Every structure is written in structure tokens, then in C-alpha cells.
Amino acid sequence: MPDYSKYYFSRKEWLVCFSIAAAGTGMVAWLFYRSVYAVLLFPLCLEISKRQLRRYRKEKREQEMLYQFQEMLQIIAGLLKAGYSMENAFREGERDFVQLYGKECVMAREFAVINHQLRMNIPIEKLLEDFAERSGIEEIESFSQVFGFAKRGGGDVVKIFRDSTERIAEQIEVQREIETLISGKKLEQKIMALVPCGILIYIGVGMPEFLEPLYGNLPGVLIMSLCLTVYGASCLLAQKIVEVHR
After folding, report:
1. Were both Cys, which of 20, 33, 54, 65 would link to 38 (CB 3.0–4.6 Å)?
2. Nearest to residue 89, comparing CAs of 80, 101, 81, 99?
3. Coil, strand, or helix at residue 103?
């Protein structure tokens, strides 16, 4: 089974990376250097675009997995409360879950694997611990540890499922509220990141002679390289500031 703590690009995502890197390289070449030799920066732009897209896709997948995991716990808790055994609750829960999210989502596939291995008499706590380790999500890891202790010690499994569902739901709600509060700041950060490029485009089109001394000579290249470095570092710092971590 896959290690969800890592993210591997599909062919489509690789194409997106190359497109973003090519566009970024072209913009940097024209705005900062006015030279075709600046295309040598393409590997750097490609690496930056890879890291940014991988981080975005990985965080989005983790959010979806956490929402789906919460829904899974809720379904299982309801079936256990109705009198189903653990194995039957997972079997019936898979059907209900697939009706909600379809067969292609991450948790639907994990659900199917868990049920398959349960039929091979593998303890459920080991299956959940394995999934938690591969998920790399703190909430799922915490649940698997508590569930493992309770299952081996004869604890109230139904209560654990119910309490874990409520706790994860509260954490998701808090994260959503934080996202809502800082969504305006994120938009401001994106606009501010585009302002320097907009200024260069405006001056380059309206008053090209004003920037002419900075192109085609070593001092100009050094100055523009310094400006580009400061600009890139500022964008990364601003992104770090507005990021929300669980």
C-alpha cells in the first residue's frame, strides 16, 4: 500500500509543473534580464514549481483523507452501537462509505484493503496502525494508538470511535475557521507578490529607457539578480506567514 506521507506526480501533474516552470522562466528572463541566456534558470524554476505543487497537492490529499476518515469513524461507530461486531461493522461500513464517496477515493481503497485483510484474520488494530503510519496524519496516528490500547485492554471501543469522531470534527472546524479568517490575508499576499512584476512590466512597456542601464551589462545583471533573490525570499516568507498547519 502507498506511503501517503510522500507524494508522487502523475503525468498530468508533471506537465503542469513544466508549464509553470516554462512560464516562470520566460517571465524572469524578460523582466529581470532581457536575455535568452536567462533560460538557464529553467531547472531552478522547475524545482520551485515541483516543490510548491507537491506541497499543495499533498496538503489537499491529507485534508480529504482526514475528512473521509472522520466519516468512516462515524459510520463504524453507528454500526457498532447498533450491535454489529467489529468485522461486520467494517464490512457494512464500506458499502455505506462507497455510496457517499465512490470507490476511487483514498479511504474507499483503504476500507477495501482492511476488509480483505480482516478476512485473513489480521487484527484490526494492526491494520489501523499500519494505515496511520502510512498516512502521516497526526490525528489518525493518535486514534490508532488509543484504539490499539483499548482493543488489547478490553476498553469501550464504541466510545473511542465516537469520541475520536467528535475530536477530529472539532479540529477540522477550527482549521476551517482559521482558514476563513486569514483568507483575506492570503489574497492580499498573492496580490502583493504580483505588484513588483506589475511595476516592472509597466515601466518596461511605458518607459523602457528607464530600465535600459540594468540590462546587457555585468553590474546590471548583478543588481537584478540581487533584486530577484530578495523578491523570491520575500514571497516564500510571506507564504510561510499565512500558512495554516494542523
Report:
1. 33
2. 80
3. coil
